[in-house]
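for the recovery benchmark. tokens below, seq after
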């Protein structure tokens, strides 16, 4: 199925003002807001929607408090949307709303939706880098440390599932996702058929944790990960993990805690995969989180790591 990736996230939040400040500080553009909700967009028009947690129109919450209530996937065409609806309606309720979006639940009970993609490609200029032995790319121009960093798009989502094999089967067998890497004893990375980035979804099977871990937003390069992260720190938001660079996926990252029930991640330079990619299998070890990381304890034991419920895999 030609699913192109995650292009909208719907949160149910208990503190709307804090949620609005969080995503505004993060680098998204607020499109609209009112007494019961707000919406934000990235440069390519992927979306974050905030609604009050008590809103009866939201899908059922998996956990209490503020949390993600629905993940919205884009599809390439109306034909693909109809294929998704026909497949999933075999064993679950599928509802078509007035805007032509399909709403249902995945194999773990999380709210998911599908719509014909509304995003558009945006090329981001990267920071010029001078390499030894090559013609300089930045001449008489200092690096800009002050301009706000915009986010381009939603790259992937990470959440906990009660039965990892069942959750994996739903996405692979029903929606034709492709497995990029298997992390034995922890989780599985997978990408939608129409999404070339290393993963669209990372499912984590660590008991007793439930709910969303994080949503990842792409910026242009390492410099922007660092600049945006420092700006978030200066505005009072606490680091969840990072900055660093992952081994699985290869991307630079910096995660921040927030008031909406999941962390958010800045990332850049993730692996892009083709049909030639061979699924890799890894045994879980805490030091596999990153090849380097500034703020988290890479040598923490597995028991401590599991108890903290930290995946930091993106």
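predicted aa per position
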């Amino acid at each position: 199925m030609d699913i192109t990736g995650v292009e909208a996230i719907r949160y149910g939040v208990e503190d709307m003002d804090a949620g609005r400040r969080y995503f505004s500080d993060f680098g998204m553009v607020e499109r609209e807001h009112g007494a019961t909700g707000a919406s934000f967009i990235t440069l390519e028009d992927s979306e974050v929607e905030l609604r009050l947690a008590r809103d009866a129109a939201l899908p059922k919450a998996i956990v209490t408090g503020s949390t993600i209530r629905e993940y919205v996937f884009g599809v390439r065409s109306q034909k693909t949307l109809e294929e998704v609806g026909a497949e999933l309606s075999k064993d679950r309720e599928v509802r078509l709303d007035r805007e032509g979006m399909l709403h249902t639940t995945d194999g773990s009970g999380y709210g998911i939706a599908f719509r014909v993609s509304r995003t558009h490609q945006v090329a981001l200029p990267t920071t010029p880098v001078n390499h030894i032995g090559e013609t300089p790319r930045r001449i008489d121009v200092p690096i800009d440390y002050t301009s706000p960093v915009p986010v381009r798009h939603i790259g992937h989502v990470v959440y906990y599932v009660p039965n990892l094999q069942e959750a994996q089967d739903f996405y692979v067998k029903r929606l034709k996702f492709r497995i990029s890497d298997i992390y034995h004893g922890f989780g599985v990375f997978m990408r939608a058929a129409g999404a070339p980035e290393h993963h669209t979804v990372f499912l984590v099977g660590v008991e007793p944790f439930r709910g969303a871990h994080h949503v990842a937003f792409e910026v242009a390069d390492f410099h922007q990960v660092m600049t945006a992260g420092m700006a978030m720190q200066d505005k009072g938001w606490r680091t969840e993990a990072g900055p660093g660079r992952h081994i699985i996926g290869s991307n630079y990252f910096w995660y921040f805690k927030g008031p909406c029930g999941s962390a958010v991640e800045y990332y850049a330079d993730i692996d892009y995969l083709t049909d030639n990619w061979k699924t890799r299998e890894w045994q879980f070890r805490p030091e596999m989180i990153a090849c380097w990381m500034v703020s988290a304890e890479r040598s923490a034991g597995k028991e401590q790591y599991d108890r903290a419920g930290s995946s930091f895999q993106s």
